[in-house]
Amino acid sequence: MEKAFTFFLLTLLLLHCVMASSAMTHTNATSDQLALISLKSQIISDPFHFLDESWSPTNSVCHWIGVTCDYRHQRVRSLNLSNMALTGRIPRNFGNLTFLVSLDLGRNNFEGNLPQDMARLHRLKFLDLSFNNFRGEVPSWFGFLLQLQLLNLGNNSFTGSISSTLSNISSLETLILEFNFIEGQIPKDIGNLKKLRELNLRGNNLIGSIPMSLSNASRLETLDITSNLLQGNIPEGIGNLHNMNLLSIQHNQLTGSIPFTIFNISRIEVIAFTTNSLSGNLPNDLCNGVPILKGLYLTKNKLHGHMPISLSNCSELQMLSLSENEFDGPIHSEIGRLSNLRSLYLGNNRFTGIIPQELGDLVNLVNLGMEVNQITGSVPLSIFNISSLQILGLWRNNLEGSLPREIGNLTKIQALYLDENIFTGEIPREISNLVELEEFTIAYNRFSGPLDMEMFNISGLRVISLSNNSLSGSLPPNIGSILPNIEFLYLRYLANLVGTIPHSISNCSKLTILELSHNKLTGLIPNSLGYLNHLQYLNLLENNLTSDSSLSFLTSLTNCRNLTYLVLSSNPLNGMLPVSSGNLSTALTKFYASSCKIKGRIPNEVGNLSNLLELDLSENHLVGSIPTSIHNLRNLQRLYLTSNKLTGFIGDNLCKLQHLGAIYLGQNQLSGFLPNCLGNVTSLREIHLGSNKLISNIPASLGNLKDLMVLDLSSNNMVGSLPSEIGNLKVVTHIDLSMNQFSNGIPREIGGLQDLVHLSLRHNKLQGSLPDSMSNMVGLEFLDLSHNNISGTIPMSLEKLQNLKYFNVSVNKLYGEIPSRGPFKNLSSQFFIYNEALCGSSRFGVPPCPISSKHRSNRTKVLVLFLFLGIALVFVPITFVFLWVRRKPDEFEGDLSLKQWVSCSLPAAVMDVADANLVPLTDNHLKKKLDCVATILKVALDCCVESPARRTGMKDVVRMLQKIKIQLLDY
What we know:
Elements: H1 2-41, E1 43-45, H2 50-54, E2 67-69, E3 76-80, E4 87-88, E5 102-104, E6 109-112, E7 126-128, E8 133-137, E9 150-152, E10 157-159, E11 174-176, E12 198-200, E13 222-224, E14 231-232, E15 246-248, E16 253-254, E17 270-272, E18 295-297, E19 304-306, E20 319-321, E21 326-330, E22 343-345, E23 350-352, E24 367-369, E25 376-377, E26 391-393, E27 398-402, E28 415-417, E29 422-425, E30 439-441, E31 446-450, E32 463-465, E33 469-474, H3 479-482, E34 488-490, E35 494-498, E36 513-515, E37 522-524, E38 537-539, E39 544-546, H4 552-556, E40 565-567, E41 590-592, E42 599-601, E43 614-616, E44 621-624, E45 638-640, E46 645-646, E47 662-664, E48 671-672, E49 686-688, E50 693-694, E51 710-712, E52 719-721, E53 734-736, E54 741-745, E55 758-760, E56 765-767, E57 782-784, E58 791-792, E59 806-808, E60 813-817, E61 837-839, H5 859-883, H6 898-904, H7 910-913, H8 926-943, H9 954-969
Parallel strand pairs: 3-5, 4-6, 5-7, 6-8, 7-9, 8-10, 9-11, 11-12, 12-13, 13-15, 14-16, 15-17, 17-18, 18-20, 19-21, 20-22, 21-23, 22-24, 24-26, 25-27, 26-28, 27-29, 28-30, 29-31, 30-32, 31-33, 32-34, 33-35, 34-36, 36-38, 37-39, 38-40, 40-41, 41-43, 42-44, 43-45, 44-46, 45-47, 47-49, 48-50, ...
Antiparallel strand pairs: 1-4, 2-3
Helix pairs in contact: 5-8, 5-9, 8-9
């Protein structure tokens, strides 16, 4: 009985445990369902209705799409919603999925931060959130997911730094953080992840050096830290990672040499260090330790030395890129043994010799590129025996000779790049055998002979570039059938391309770029160009093309809605711009039609071209005013309307173009004022308004143009003073204000323009002296101040302007010594003619100065002394006047005072006043010296005029005495 009772109690206890367990399972399964329903509620876009149809509370969560449950507990173990184009966020209670082992939300549009609750997913081993829009800092709580084996956050918008807590995840095998915005350094203890096989930090903003501890991650197979800002050396210990398969540290700022130990990693297949600053050489036995190497990328470094002979031992090599380094020596013939090589780049080095004939042994070569090399000589025929060759790139070398007919053997070639060499002779007709050819470029060579377009009757041809050769001929009338798939056609600068543009060109329906500039084409521009719906670039510059009077071809081009670049300049179009010009593509950014003999007005509809960056209608016969609609061209950067017959005011419309960098309105008949608001267009770099009829002064607001480099207001009728704000134009290099009516002095602030190269102020009414501050204009090369009223002396400090080549101060009122040192050594006399009293070296055509240049150091003392003497000469007579007022009246004639007597004695009876001992009667220059004395006495009388307002100022007194000094010392 007792045993039965005990058994009954145990049964009840077991039943209770089972029921309790069942209740717990139900509760936890419900929490999983609630977490997933919460996730669904945060998804705002499910274009394929994956969740709408499957995730229903009426179904067991374990049957929902993307959900896998644990069989025993019926808990969500795996959630895979990858590549479903879902948009939304992860909810806070997502951490309730505590049985989750694998989570894959990759390739969707999830956004926002990762919730802190996800730190509760302690069973998580696989986490892939790649290719979404997650943001915020990389969470440090990842360090608590200690069972994590794969963490992929690539291609998101994560910021911040890599938390050192990630180094706690000892089970981590794959860490991918590529293409985010992560900053800071790679954690120094990253090497503690002993099980790590793949580390991908590509495309971030990481700084600092590569951690030495990485050499401890002995299982590492892939290390990709390309496209960061890493500096320093490549750690020597990287060579100890014997399981390494791919090593890519491209596009960083690494320095130092490549550790030779890397070339002992026998399992490595790819070594990539492109675009760094690595130096040193490569080991001669490079390939002996890397037998399965397939790719070696070393482009754009500073490596030097010879090409390793052992390269031929890399029998699996498919890609070898040594271009843009400093390698020298020969290209070893053994390279021809690389039978699996697909790409060879040896460009921009210092290799010597010609391409070895053994290169023809590369029977499986797919891509051969030797651009920008120092290789000379002709192309070896063996290259043209490589029957599997698909891309041959030999551009920018010094290859010469003719292109052999054997080129026709490359029947699988898809791209042939021979640009920028010295090839001569005719283009071989065997080109027509290259039936798979898509791109053919031979520009910038010396090919000659007839241009036979029939040879390009290859249906798949997309690109032809024959520019800058000596080819002659014409475009075939059936060009549309010869090149049905052509996209880019470059035929500029040919020696004798004549004839017309065929109407059949409209059949080249895929044409995107048509370059026919600098040729001898004639005839009408065909309206059929309007059928080229994909046309983006049309350049007809410098031909002899014409049009009807309404330029109807422009109307046809309005159908080309992708047109962004249109050049018609230097063709005799002889017509008027149609109103339909405003209907050209809104994508149009550059429109050039200068020197086309276009007449009439600029249509107001031009303002519809809202994306226009540059408009050039210069050197035509345009009349009328600048259209007011021009203010709609809000993106306009350069406006060329020079050399037309435009009239009216400039107006304020230009001031609304806040991206405007250059205005060319010279050689027109524009009148009125220079807009004051022009100073608000702070993007301006150049202002060309010369040869118009402007009448205003220079607005002080132009001083706001801190980036202005050119200011040309010459040949107008502008007036007023030069504003002191001109000194704010610190980067200006060219100022031309000549042929105006500017007056008053040159502002001393102009001396702050140290970058100014050209300054012309000639033919104005400027007064005052040359500011000494001009000696600070160290960049000045050209200075023309001729035909003004400038007075005073030429500052000796201008001798410091070592770059000065042209200095013209003729036709002014200057006096004193002409500087003779520095740039003045090479100036001629014509630059100083027609001034008041200049003196100096005889080569200037002026009289010598009284003070020899040998005693230049004493000039200042002598000048000071003379000034004291001069002042004495003025005030002694004045004192003499007042001392003798008590003289007896009968000592003067009539009622004359002393001042009146001196005044009456001038200038004829100077000897009655002056002491005879000062000017002996036997003096050879008596008359001239008496004139000087008379002038001194005149100055004295002017200084003692009774009215203070009429008295001569002391500055003028000093100036006059300086002139008298020069005259006296000459006799």
